Amino acid sequence: MIKSRLIDPKSGKDYHTYTGYDDAPVLVTTSHAAHDGHFAAVTLASAGTQTIVEAKSKQGIVLTDLIISGEKVNGGSITIQFTDAANTVNIFIATVTDAPVALAIPFAGRWVGWQACDIKVVTVGNIDGSVSVGYFRTPESKTMAYAKWDAER
To answer: For the domain that residue 96 is a member of, what is the CATH number?
Structure first.
């Protein structure tokens, strides 16, 4: 067996390994979502708007997962959106007038918002349910202002 190490040329630090089941070292690779991910959840009980993930400075928010459940309510809807003080983009709208909603999406693409936008949930009607999102934040240097973000999507 040849002993070797993978080293980052800029920092000089070893890339991460761990000891596997047979005590052999294993190189660990993972996505940002798995390494840096968080989740947030809100309970739906009445009509209104709730912030599920709040912006931090000019960072961006990348969605990794979305889980929505809600009971049938006459005239009801659940809307998930990226929004700031001036701009709003709907991610998903569920009309629950005729049927309940039950949805789980593990996003595979780059569902990222623009600088300083929140993720909000808007409900119409007294819906009994919940919304959960998986997410991670991008640094300000990697996040676009709304006009550039909108032009590139």
So the answer is: 2.60.120
